[in-house]
Design brief:
Residues 30-116 form the Cyclic nucleotide-binding domain. InterPro entries: cNMP-bd_dom, cNMP-bd_dom_sf, RmlC-like_jellyroll. With 189 residues, the chain is an alpha+beta fold. The chain has a domain at 4-117: Jelly Rolls. The chain is 46% helix and 23% strand. The protein is built from 8 helices and 8 strands; from the N terminus they run ααββββββαββααααα. It has a 4-stranded antiparallel beta sheet. A 4-stranded antiparallel beta sheet has the order 2-7-4-5.
Amino acid sequence: MSHLLKEHIGAISPLSDEEFDYILSHFVFKKLKKHAFLVQEGNSVKYEYFVLKGCLKAYMTDSNTGKEFIYQFGVEDWWITDREAFFKQSTATINIDCLEDSEVLGITLENREKLVTEMRKYEHFVAVKANLGYISLQKRLQLMIMGSVKERYENFIQQYPHLINRIPKSLIASYLGVSRETLSRLYRS
């Protein structure tokens, strides 16, 4: 039987069924409805989540204006959490909520560290994913600092073609750091 998490880890560190079953036993399954919070600002963050189904957004809210600033989406085969709060075992400074009904697997920091210590394959997987995440973040920051709105939008389309029709344009605009109107002008040109 195929499992999305097994395929995800196996792309970096191939696993036997027994190894995967052991890894999976360290995760908890959560099912959430559209608009439900996975992580809420001010609450503790006990899990790092792997998305099995659905679409989520991670964002900060400006306390003065109420405006949302989206910094990450999470869809099938992606990881999402408030990383700082998860690793420092502190309270969340962001919100993560569901744009669609969603299903996730959550792993505690304790279980994550246990697997990294016990299994070389899982340790390798975590290290590779961390490096890829840093590379992705670096590219995103470079585009936000140096890229034009058009370049940011075109990069988003190229990098995430499966999200264009799945996520409302106003949320894509927030992710790109522009207004919905500015994004609309790009569609027309």
